[in-house]
Amino acid sequence: MGIGETIKGTIKEKVGDVTDDDQLKAEGDAQQTKGEAQTDESKSRAEAKAHEEKADALEQEQKSLED
After folding, report:
1. Half-sphere exposure in the Cβ direction for 18 (13 Å, CA)
2. CB-based contacts of 45: which residues, under 8 Å, 6+ apart?
3. Model pLDDT for residues 6-58, shown as the tens digit of each residue
4. Taking the CB of residue 11, how many other CB atoms lie within 10 A of it?
5. Cβ pair 35, 12 in contact under 8 A
6. 22/15 Cα distance (integer angstroms)
7. Radius of gyration over alpha carbons of the chain, in Å?
8. Is 20 left (phi over 0), alpha (psi -120 to 50) or beta?
9. Most CB atoms closer than 10 Å: which of 29, 35, 39, 46?
């Protein structure tokens, strides 16, 4: 998701450089920023899910020790 946006943005920016198109360079830069934000969000969600799963496992372990 985010990686694709980053790649497309990079390509747009490079084409803008070659064609001297400031608008295309700006679009590419914005698209790269969007892609990087999406990638960061995906990583954060994955980390949160891993922490949640660990907490659930520890809770189950605690319950089994209490019984």
Report:
1. 6
2. none
3. 999 999 999 999 999 999 999 999 999 999 999 999 999 999 999 999 999 99
4. 14
5. no
6. 10
7. 21
8. left
9. 35
